[in-house]
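Design job #97: recover the sequence.
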């Protein structure tokens, strides 16, 4: 007991998963400790005096920590221990003082390096982290910050993802140093998706170099598709498959047996020339067949036949006559040379006619506006619910666009916190996969067909 009365060392255990000294310092004990050492059995907190240690243990033992960025809350254990039980230097994994030293030495720039991101949907996590910061800014109190908010929210700054490491990292370019400082203040030593996050200023030249290299190489990225992935394969397995080439991003949805891989064009072309899709590449006891993923918009363009020549003209639905003097069926589409009916023309507003000519595929329709045919895509509706109270149509549109899903119409119901979104029929499956149970303005979405 005497040793405890003279001890200023406290052991914290049963902390939420993924916590590290930086987060404990900034968001749990608010700078009370002189040092926090992270070891396998917990966090060793060094307080200024034994009295401080006793008071610290009394206040924090059994307290609950957790919130919207935690999967669940934890009741932590805090107790004073003898100074002799402090961990050996070799057993310490992280120290608070190292974090504070690095933080103090950071430059003040417009570019921020963010780490501690989730393995899946890392870029979306970066966007949500930025939203969390700028949604809290009071525009009326600070006009300068209001201008920055307008630039960044609901749009996003330049984000360069690095997926070469086990956990993704990001370089983010903001429109001002003030905006960058706001993100660093909240997320350097923050907590997101069960992980301590670090947001550190870096020299602007670091991102400028990457952007310039992309411009010189054309800035194009190839998207590759692997249709049959080995069961239980990880992103590391897929990354090793492409060695020595380095994918810029890998998307693998839980429970799905396919993967999307993004690489620079030159690297993708070299890989496919060495391992064409019909042969594949053996790796980890599995033959992976890799091919280029066809862009949805390109696929639609290829499946849409050429438009008719200038001999076609729209026929008003006012009872025109065919060559034999008989009335053309209501809403017909007439060939001015042969007089034949080649499709449907119906009365729409602004002299627009909906046509389904014989050369169009069943899922493709066209409209004729002032005599010009424009392809249209058959659509379906999905319902997205559990929206944030302040979410608007633009937020929903950008959310779907970030998932590579084009929206044709959005009907928002703020009272019910949901929206009906009209998308292409071919995009429904991808939309349900990519948008359900994801963060939109800090709320987890529910998307159903």
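Job complete. Output follows.
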């Amino acid at each position: 007991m005497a040793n405890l009365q003279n001890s200023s060392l406290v052991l914290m255990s049963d902390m939420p998963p993924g916590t590290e000294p930086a987060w404990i310092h900034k968001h749990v004990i608010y700078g009370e400790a002189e040092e926090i050492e992270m070891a396998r059995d917990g966090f060793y907190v060094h307080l200024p005096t034994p009295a401080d240690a006793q008071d610290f243990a009394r206040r924090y033992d059994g307290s609950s920590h957790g919130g919207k960025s935690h999967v669940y809350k934890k009741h932590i254990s805090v107790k004073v221990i003898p100074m002799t039980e402090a961990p050996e230097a070799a057993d310490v994994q992280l120290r608070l003082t190292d974090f504070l030293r690095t933080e103090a030495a950071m430059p003040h720039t417009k570019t921020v390096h963010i780490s501690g991101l989730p393995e899946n949907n890392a870029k979306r996590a970066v966007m949500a982290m930025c939203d969390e910061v700028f949604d809290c800014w009071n525009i009326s109190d600070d006009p300068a910050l209001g201008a920055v908010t307008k630039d960044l929210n609901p749009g996003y700054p330049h984000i360069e993802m690095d997926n070469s490491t086990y956990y993704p990292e990001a370089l983010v370019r903001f429109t001002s140093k003030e905006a960058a400082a706001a993100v660093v203040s909240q997320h350097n030593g923050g907590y997101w998706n069960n992980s301590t996050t670090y947001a550190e200023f870096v020299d602007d030249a670091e991102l400028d170099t990457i952007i310039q290299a992309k411009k010189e190489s054309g800035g194009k990225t190839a998207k590759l598709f692997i249709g049959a992935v080995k069961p239980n394969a990880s992103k590391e397995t897929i990354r090793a498959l492409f060695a020595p080439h380095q994918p810029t991003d890998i998307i693998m949805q839980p429970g799905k047996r396919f993967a999307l891989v993004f690489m620079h064009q030159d690297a993708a072309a070299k890989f496919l020339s060495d391992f064409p899709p019909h042969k594949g590449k053996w790796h980890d006891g599995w033959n992976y067949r890799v091919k280029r993923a066809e862009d949805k918009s390109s696929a639609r363009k290829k499946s849409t036949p050429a438009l008719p020549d200038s001999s076609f003209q729209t026929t008003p639905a006012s009872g025109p006559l065919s060559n034999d003097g008989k009335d053309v069926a209501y809403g017909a589409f007439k060939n001015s040379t042969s007089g034949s009916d080649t499709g449907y023309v119906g009365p729409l507003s602004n002299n627009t006619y909906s046509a389904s000519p014989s050369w169009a595929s069943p899922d493709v329709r066209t409209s004729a506006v002032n005599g010009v045919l424009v392809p249209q895509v058959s659509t379906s509706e999905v319902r997205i619910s559990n929206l944030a109270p302040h979410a608007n149509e633009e937020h929903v549109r950008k959310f779907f666009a970030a998932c590579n899903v084009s929206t044709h119409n959005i009907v928002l119901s703020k009272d019910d916190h949901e929206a009906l979104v009209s998308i292409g029929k071919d995009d429904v499956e991808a939309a349900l996969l990519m948008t359900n149970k994801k963060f939109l303005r800090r709320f987890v979405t529910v998307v159903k067909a």
